[in-house]
Amino acid sequence: MSKNYFNIIRPGVNSTFQDKGRDHLYHIGIPFSGAMDNRNFLIANKLVNNNLNSAVIEFAYQGPHMKYFGKKINLAISGDVIFSIKKKDNEIQGNCYQSYKIESGDEINIISTNKSVYGYLAIGGDLDIKYQWNSCSINTKANIGANDGKKFKEGQKIYLKKINSNQDIKKINYVNTKIENIRVIKGTNFNYFSEDGKKLFYDSEFTISKLSDRMGMRLEGSKIENIVNTNIKSEGLIKGVIQVPADGNPIIMLSDHGTVGGYPKIGVVASVDYDRLVQMSPGSKIKFKEINLSDAETLFKLYEMETKNLLSQI
Description:
Layout: E1 5-10, E2 16-18, H1 38-47, E3 56-60, E4 65-69, E5 73-78, E6 81-87, E7 90-93, E8 99-102, E9 107-113, E10 118-123, E11 125-127, E12 157-163, E13 182-186, H2 195-203, E14 206-208, E15 216-220, E16 235-236, E17 241-243, E18 251-253, E19 260-261, E20 265-269, H3 274-278, E21 285-286, E22 288-290, H4 293-312
Parallel strand pairs: 13-22
Antiparallel strand pairs: 1-4, 1-12, 2-3, 3-10, 4-9, 5-8, 5-10, 6-7, 6-9, 11-12, 13-20, 14-15, 14-21, 15-18, 16-19, 17-18, 17-20
């Protein structure tokens, strides 16, 4: 067993291991999972010289408080996160998008996210965790992934198999932006809804419910009227699809969503807006704006180019 490890003093809220997720398993009911905010996941890994698909610790609202034992190592946090690092009797307030060196006995305390949901802690090296279907990503609903598919627990130890030799301090000036509207493409059941229902969907403001997690985001607001059937024969779902059940309140499927569903689909969130969507906390207001498939593809290509450019700056 490695002598380099973190001891979890406080697990935080929904702290899990995540990477890019799992491909090509929808046919057996396994969703992609993976990091909710892909850009922040990639930036965190790049800041500590990791492979871009290395496992990170994803947390929601509050992250873990951990004490490190072992050889010197570097780490970085991405997102809009408040955290501190305690070195002996000296405690410093950390900055996101900057790597830090820590030594045996040091502590990192991830206190909270700031008007957002998810943050990412990348550790410079390879974590000693199990992979399932070529991914460590944890889906707690199905108990899939590393850590027996479960959230972190108090007293748990996180071991490292390898520590990166390159521990240069790196940082990037990056701001998590917000957008006024979430852009969507028409869903396959768009014509199930009345003209008033369609208008309400695009013109109304919805509130993100507290009943939201990695599986789905429930919205509250104007009821979207269905004029055909509130249930359909179950069919495949994708990340970002927006279902409308009988109560008329939309539900957006997120990274741990079920792979089939029987509610009509009014729209699909454009991939370019997914990172910013998942960072919207309960109580936030959300509005939708229709775009066509061609525009969505162009916007996503620009998003990928911008992400690649950001990573090249680190």
